[in-house]
Amino acid sequence: MSSTVGQVIKCKAAVAWEAGKPLVIEEVEVAPPQAMEVRVKILFTSLCHTDVYFWEAKGQTPVFPRILGHEAAGIVESVGEGVTDLQPGDHVLPVFTGECKECDHCKSEESNMCSLLRINPDRGVMIGDGKARFSINGKPIYHFLGTSTFSEYTVVHVGCLAKINPLAPLETVCVLSCGISTGFGATVNVAKPKKGSSVAVFGLGAVGLAAAEGARVSGASRIIGVDLNSDRFEQAKKFGVTEFVNPKDHDRPVQEVIAEMTGGGVDRSVECTGNINAMISAFECVHDGWGVAVLVGVPHNDDVFKTSPVNFLSERTLKGTFYGNYKPRSDIPGVVEKYMNKEMELEKFITHEVPFSEINKAFDLMLRGEGLRCLIRMEH
Ligand code: CXF
Ligand code: ZN
After folding, report:
1. Which Pfam family name is an example for this entry (predicted)?
2. What residue owns the CA closest to ligand 1's atom 9?
């Protein structure tokens, strides 16, 4: 048993003291895991848009000081009371939405929206006792999405940890912890394109390109990438995107352009921007009779989806998904296996890498819209 079990660990963490201010690497104290909790040594984390969104805290409940980060990979250091399916040394991916395995959602084959551990960005404490496990000089530092992976050690509810193959390279499968599973799952679990079909992907960031990767491995023959930034088209070719449409190049709605390109519409579409007009276009660009559109991007609070009901009566289907419909503990280990069996590619999503001490550079890259995923290597 390691000497840290049951002890407070002092380690480095990147603390967001205030909205929009650079993170500061601080020495924090990390309390031992309580009942149903696990303390995890983080080895790799990567920056996802959601971290930046809650760091900026525009129009949201600000929760500071806080340790952000949710896309990561690590190793179990110790487990709290009642944790039976994980032990020190296990390799895990923390996930921002959990799977308690006991609620109605977890028991349903059709849902991954666990009632107990569903995402709650306003919560900065553990669900067990309502307290933070991080502190500096006795003052609490709050959690984020139940994961807070911008720390050398973090405490996570057991229901938010996927135990994965110990042979999987943590620096690569790290990206399955959020964005890539979200996009890939939206296509393979929800849109389910048939071999030889056509798929439109709106938004060619990491999530959209993961949706395209899902279409590629499903054997789609036409993958149409839609983005307002034509600079993204070259990179998207690596992800199987075969054709590009920049809505700015056309003086009519992009759904009309796509309908014309495809003889009536695409078989499937996946919307990964969160822009309300892109969502409407993504729905209206699918073929009548069988087309399915899947919404992934997160809209603004006051957005309203408006379309003619006739689009439904003519047998188009609109769906939405959360975390690619994956149940974190039950399904993510299998996605890691898919990568291990070379049934999906992950390396191409990781375009940058920085050491933990330079984590603010990862924020700069994302704010400039450069690259897909910036891997942050912990420096234990
Ligand atoms: C998102 C998914 C939709 C709600 C906010 C968080 N996932 C992670 O980045
Ligand atoms: Zn994320």
Report:
1. ADH_N
2. 50
The residue range of the domain holding 87 is 9-18+47-65+73-177+325-377
In the Cβ-directed half-sphere of 310, how many Cα atoms lie within 13 Å? 1
Note the pTM of the prediction, 2 decimals: 0.98
Strand order across the 268-271 sheet:
243-245, 222-226, 198-202, 268-271, 292-295, 317-320
> Which residue owns the Cα nearest ligand 1 atom 3?
298
CA-closest candidate to residue 270, choices 194, 377, 190:
190
pLDDT of residue 1: 61
225: its two tokens? 């990438």
Distance CA 213, CA 238 (A): 9
pLDDT for the residue 39: 98
- Whether 114 is a known active-site residue: answer yes
- Ligand 1 proximity of 48 Cβ (cutoff 6 Å): yes
Q: Ligand 1 within 6 A of 50 CB?
A: yes
Identify the CATH number of the domain in which residue 210 sits: 3.40.50.720
Catalytically annotated residue among 77, 97, 99, 114: 114
How many residues are there in the chain? 380
Is 285 an active-site residue?
Answer: no
Q: What is the pLDDT of residues 151-169, one digit of tens each?
A: 999 999 999 999 999 999 9
| Tens digit of each residue's pLDDT (9 = 90 or more) over 253-299 | 999 999 999 999 999 999 999 999 999 999 999 999 999 999 999 99
One domain, residues 84 and 133: yes
Has 174 been annotated as catalytic? no
Catalytic residue among 37, 39, 45, 70, which? 70
| 197 and 266 both lie in a single domain | yes
Which atom of ligand 1 is the closest one to the Cα of 96?
A: 8
Q: What pLDDT, on a 0 to 100 scale, did the predictor assign at position 60? A: 86
> Within the chain, which residues score under 70 in pLDDT?
1
Q: Name the active-site residue from 26, 56, 118, 222.
A: 118
Element at 154 (helix H, strand E):
strand 153-157
**Would residue 329 count as lying in a domain?**
yes
